[in-house]
Amino acid sequence: MHNENFWERLHAIRRRFAGSLPTKIEESIAELPNLCGVQKRASAAVEGCYRRIHGISGLAAIVGFAPTGQAAKRAEDALADAFRARRGLTPDEATLFAEELHALSAAAASDLGHGKTVWRVRKITQLSA
After folding, report:
1. Number of compact structural domains in the chain
2. Helices (H), the chain
3. Is 129 domain-assigned?
4. Helices 40-60, 66-85: crossing angle, 10 deg rounding
5. Do 57 and 76 touch, CB atoms closer than 8 A?
6. 36, 47, 105, 117 — which has fewest CB within 10 A?
7. What's the pTM value of the predicted model, to 2 decimals?
8. Cα separation of 123 and 41, whole Å?
9. Residue at 84 is within a domain
10. For residue 15, what is the domain's CATH number?
11. pLDDT single digits (tens) 64-73
12. Residue 127 lies in a domain
């Protein structure tokens, strides 16, 4: 009986994770223009994205979304230096993060059974503006 309860709970967690994944990715995409610079706003945006992506990274593999978890870990790593230093991203870091976010989007779409990337990462120009 306890074993059935465990699997029911895990399935519920998996459903909630899958349901929130698109929104978390979309929120991170929306933050891309705010991640660069020396303003406090950029540092706060990096922190928010890092925590959001870290949450995906930490739970994805546990609930059966291994490719999503791996892609999220790479995106998290792209933010790590700026997050730890409490600063905005450099233009190179922002480009790398955008690329990793695109890969995360593709992995999530595949894991969710969409078969193609459903969230587009806009090409960011003037990231350091």
Report:
1. 1
2. 2-31, 40-60, 66-85, 91-111
3. no
4. 150
5. yes
6. 47
7. 0.83
8. 21
9. yes
10. 1.20.120.160
11. 899 999 999 9
12. no
